[in-house]
Every structure is written in C-alpha cells, then in structure tokens.
TrEMBL record, chain A:
Protein name: Oligopeptide ABC transporter permease OppB
Taxonomy of the source species: Bacteria, Pseudomonadati, Pseudomonadota, Alphaproteobacteria, Caulobacterales
Record membrane topology: Multi-pass membrane protein
Residue stretches making up the ABC transmembrane type-1 domain: 94-297
Keyword Membrane applies: yes
Source domain of life: Bacteria
UniProtKB/TrEMBL annotation, chain B:
Domain ABC transmembrane type-1, first and last residues per copy: 100-289
Entry's family note: Belongs to the binding-protein-dependent transport system permease family. OppBC subfamily.
Protein species of origin: Peiella sedimenti
Protein name, per record: Oligopeptide transport system permease protein OppC
Predominant cellular place of this UniProt entry's protein: membrane
Protein localization: Cell inner membrane; Cell membrane
Length: 307, 301
C-alpha cells in the first residue's frame, strides 16, 4: 500500500511538472502581452512594467524563477489587476467553483445511483428504457445547449429563478447552474450504476441474501448497492475533470465569479500568473483525485491488488 | 481474404464450399448492424445531414454571409427565410448548413489525426513491448491526467483561431484513448500464429505492424472512431461557445449556439435550430457507434 502510494506520488510530480512547463511556454508563446491595452502606452512605461514583473529577463530564467516561486507556494501577483495576487483570485473564485461543482457531483450521485439501480431492478421495462433514454440525452446534449435552453424555458414559464449572478451563493442562484452541470454526470453515473447493479444482482452473495429470506429492499440497499457502486469510485477522477470543464461554460453563461471565468479572462488578457495558477490548481486537483480514487477502490474492494 | 482461403482446397472441395457459402465475420457484423434500428436511423439521419451540409448551401438562394439589411430578425418562414435570419439579416438555414459542414469537417479531420497518431503509437508500443512499451505508455498516462481542456484553450489563445490548428489541437489530445485501445489489441495479436509465420518468413517489425497488425485492428478502431467524432464536435463547439472557435463570417454549430444563446430573448429560432442540429448529430453518431460495437463485438453486449 505504502509502496504503491510512493510510486504514484513519484509519477504525480513529473506530471505536475509537465502541466506547469506546457502551460508556461504556451502562455508565453501567445502573441501580445499583459500590457497591451486599447490605449497605447509609452514604450518606457511598458518597459518599466515588464521590468517590475521580471518579463524583461530571458524566458528560461523566468521559467526557473517561476518554478522556484511555485515550490515555495508563491504564485505571484496578477499582471492586470494592481495589488491583487493570484492567491487572491483563487481565494475568491475557488469557493464559488467548488460549491457549484461539489453540489453538482452530489446531486449527480444521488440521482444517478437511484436511476441506475431502478433501471437494473426493472430490467427491460419502460422504466429501464426511460433511464437509458435519459442517459443518452445526457451525453448528447452538452451543457452549453442545456443552459440556454433552460433559460429560454424559464422565460416562457417564469419559475422565478434568477438567470444569472452569484448573490453570495443563495439557493435560487445555485439551482440552474447545478442542475445543468450535473446532467451529463447523471447520465454517466446512472449507466455505470445500472451495469454494476445488473452484474451484482446475479452474484452468489446476493443469492445467499435472498436465500436467507431478506426483504428486497434490504438486499438492494445493504448488499447489492455496495458492490454495484464500486465502479463509481474509479470514475471520481474523470467526473471531477468533467465538472471542471463544464464549469468553464456554466460560469460564463450564468455570470458566476468562479475560477473558470478567471482562467478564460486571464488567458484572453495574457494575465500569465493567473492562468498558470488556475491550471496548476486544477491539474493538481485532478491528479490527487485520481490517486484517491485508486486507493479507495483498493480499500473497498479486496479483490483489487495495488501494483 | 475468403478467396485465398478457398484456393487452398482442391477444386471439388472448393465447389462443395461454394454450395454452403460461408459468411465472413464482417458479413455477420453488417447483418447485426442493419438489424439495429437505432443505428440504422442514425445512419439515415447522418447521411441526410452530410448531404445537406455538402450540397445544401449551393441550392439556397441566400449566401451564408450575405447581409439582408431589410430582413433583420426575420422569424422562420418570413420573407422566404425558412429558419429566419439573425441580427445582421443573414439566412439562418444557410448559416446552419455551413456550420454543420464546419463541425463535421472538424470532427472527421481531427479524428483522422488522432487515428493516425493513436494507431501508430499504440501498435509500436504494443508490438515492441518491454522498456519501449513502458516508456511510451507512461507518456500517455502523464498526458492523460492533464487538465486537457485548459491546454486546448491555451493552444487556441496562442496560435490564434486558425482552422488547421483546431484540427491539430483536438486531434493531438484525442489520440490517447486510441493508443491505449490499439496497444491492448496489438499485444494479443502479437501472440497469434500468423504473426509468428510472418516473422519466420523474415519480415521486419515495421512490415509486420503495417501489413499484419494494423489491418486486424480495424474492428475496435472503427468503433472508437465513430465515438470520437462526436466528442471532437463537442470540444470544437465548446471552444466556439467560449469565443475561441472559427472566425466570422465562417461559423460552426457551437458558434451558432453561442450567438443564439445571446440573441434568444429576441429570436428563439437562432438558438433552437442550431441546438437541435447539434443534438441530432451527436445522437446519430452515438447510435451508430453503439450499434457498431454490438455488431463487431457481440460478446461485449
């Protein structure tokens, strides 16, 4: 177990290094710079600004210095917003993105597992087919289609939910973004649960539970469900990546002050440190979650051996 | 392939075999595919859409970039515009067909890029085995755990919104799964007698990969290709939605949806029709892909 953890961490470090290096040089290769504004600044001003942020040094030197700073936890100041550091951006934006993303994941888990189990228990009935249909729709209707369509629908029926804005995370402001973000995940989770459940229901230990005379409810919730949702643990990493990707669009459509928007705006404005900070944070998050997923799978399923 | 097999037997033998005319694996697969209603529906819809995207624009009276200043925001059916017009009075039907063409083209070309890289990478890694395999697949693992959408966005920002780059950027990211699938298949093919025979006949590794391994990968690769195309279309639309797709006046389904989302308060049609086209395209591909998987690999059902 410890050896496995050690080896995986050994792979995680170069992965993160690749993330940082790729993002750094890609961002710097982009035409223009953070000090290109509509109003053309005098060259001396630009030169002074560049000197202040160290942009006048050769690129490899900047890269090494940046790496050194990141290791000590210093992500630098924003180049576009005076007296705001990248950590300020993360402190402001990440809780918003996290709250939405986590709510969406929890909702997707609840609904997806319920639908998937239902479909497996009522195999080849209309209930099963409707769950399959939902799963297909969830995969084929992307978030950037669902969100505007829902807003259009909301205009027609007027359900009184705000069409955007954060409002300090008030519940009505959360409803639509969270639903939209969770739909693709509901689709995948219900499909995974259905497949897992169908297999588990045929297994010997479920037959034993039946033979003991347990009620169907107990069999499903206490025995079958545990085995059926095991594949979901491995899906944790990809699910998280999917939610992060979705949040880029959701935050744009619903005008939420999350980290995804900081990234897009930062990339367009060439605010190098902000872009780097977001990429590193999300990259690390995905790497850690993949690791956690592997460990959890091994802990929960004695058949899995870590190698 | 069948002809060669029969040629081995004697004449009488061949005639006897003619009588029962065996069905090849591919015949079976085709039969199963055409029995699948969802897949057939998908194929028909897709065929219609491809035709419409290819020749439709030439049959329409209005060019997709032509501005009709007298018919701004025409609703569907008004003044001869079947699907209405946008804020600049451009024919939505014409724009939709061009957008469909661009999205399909991006999907096919980017998938082709990922196909070429993925098949070569996977086949070489799987056939070589050992240290080479370990190294090549570790590389894939590292790339796999990158937050790839950020890199695609950075690529778009860096190299501008060029058409070629969209292909390359998406294709270069999507090849990873292909490489994994191909590697797995190659490793099992490598053990087969015909590869051993080829090796005994003195063929080099590259020739064996090209002549004997790659052709036998067709099944799983075809399935994965039909499922990659919609993924790529989705990624392209995602980028377009964020304002990093193809440039005006050219358009794609994602760009149209993005404009439609902005204009939907005034013109619902500018959102609903592109969104519908998008959903229909993705569904068709997914149905065909699922149907192909069931047809080619029936044990996986």
């Amino acid at each position: 177990m410890l050896r496995f953890l050690f080896r995986r961490l050994l792979v995680a470090i170069p992965t993160l290094l690749v993330v940082i290096t790729l993002a750094f040089f890609l961002m710097r290769a982009a035409p223009g710079g953070p000090f290109d504004t509509d109003r053309i600044l005098p060259p001396e001003v630009v030169a002074a600004m560049e000197a202040r942020f160290g942009l006048d040094k050769p690129l490899p030197v900047q890269y090494v210095e940046y790496l050194g700073n990141v290791v000590t936890g210093d992500f630098g100041p924003s180049m576009k917003y005076q007296d705001k550091t990248v950590l300020d951006f993360i402190k402001e934006g990440f809780p918003v993105s996290l709250k939405i993303g986590l709510s969406a994941l929890i909702l997707a888990m609840g609904v997806g597992v319920t639908l998937g189990s239902l479909a497996a228990l009522r195999q080849n009935t209309p209930a099963d087919y409707s769950v399959t249909a939902i799963a297909i729709l969830g995969v084929c209707v992307p978030t950037f289609v669902t969100a505007p369509l829902l807003l259009l629908l909301g205009k027609a029926v007027d359900w009184g939910l705000p069409s955007g804005g954060w409002n300090d995370g008030a519940l009505p402001n959360m409803v639509l973004p969270v639903i939209v973000l969770s739909l693709p995940q509901i689709a995948i989770i219900s499909r995974l649960t259905r497949a897992g459940m169908v297999e588990v229901l045929r297994s010997n230990y479920v037959r034993t539970a039946r033979a003991k005379g347990l009620s169907e409810w107990t069999i499903v919730t206490r025995h079958a469900l545990r085995g059926a949702i095991l594949p979901l643990v491995a899906y944790l990493g990809p699910a998280c990546a999917g939610v992060i990707t979705g949040s880029l669009v959701i935050e744009e459509i619903f005008q939420l002050p999350g980290l995804g928007r900081s990234f897009i705006i930062g990339a367009l404005q060439r605010d190098y440190p902000v872009v780097m900070g977001v990429v590193i944070l999300y990259g690390a998050l995905i790497i850690v979650l993949n690791l956690v997923a592997d460990l959890l799978t091994a802990l929960l399923d004695p058949r899995v051996r870590l190698s | 392939m069948t002809a060669r097999k029969y040629a081995i037997g004697s004449d009488a033998n061949a005639r006897a075999m003619e009588a029962v005319k065996g069905r090849s694996l591919w015949d079976d697969a085709r039969r199963r595919l055409f029995r699948n209603k969802a897949a057939v529906t998908g194929m028909i819809i897709l065929a219609v859409m491809v035709l419409a995207a290819l020749i439709g624009p030439y049959l329409l009276p209005n060019d997709y970039s032509h501005l009709n200043r007298d018919n701004v925001w025409a609703s569907p059916g008004e003044a001869g515009f079947v699907l209405g017009t946008d804020s600049l009075g451009r024919d939505l039907l014409a724009r939709l067909l061009i957008g469909l063409r661009v999205s399909l083209a991006v999907g096919v070309v980017a998938t082709a890029v990922s196909l070429v890289i993925g098949v070569i990478w996977g086949a070489v890694a799987g056939y070589a085995g050992g240290k080479v395999d370990e190294l090549m697949m570790r590389f894939v693992d590292v790339l796999y755990s990158l937050p790839f959408i950020f890199f695609v966005i950075l690529l778009m920002v860096t190299f501008g919104r060029s058409f070629i780059l969209i292909f390359a950027a998406i294709g270069a990211v999507e090849w990873l799964t292909m490489a994994r699938i191909v590697r797995g298949q190659t490793m099992s093919l490598k053990q087969k007698e015909f590869v051993e025979a080829a090796r005994a006949a003195g063929l080099g590794p590259m020739a064996i990969i090209a002549r004997h391994i790659v052709p036998n990968l067709l099944g799983p690769v075809v399935v994965y290709v039909t499922l990659t195309i919609p993924t790529v279309i989705l990624v392209e639309s995602f980028l377009s939605f964020l304002g990093m797709g193809v440039q005006e006046p050219l358009t794609s389904l994602g760009t149209l949806i993005s404009q439609g989302a902005r204009d939907m308060e005034i013109a619902w049609w500018s959102l609903v029709f592109p969104a519908g086209a998008m959903i229909l395209t993705l569904m068709s591909f997914n149905f065909i892909g699922d149907g192909l998987r069931d047809a080619i690999d029936p044990k996986d059902r």
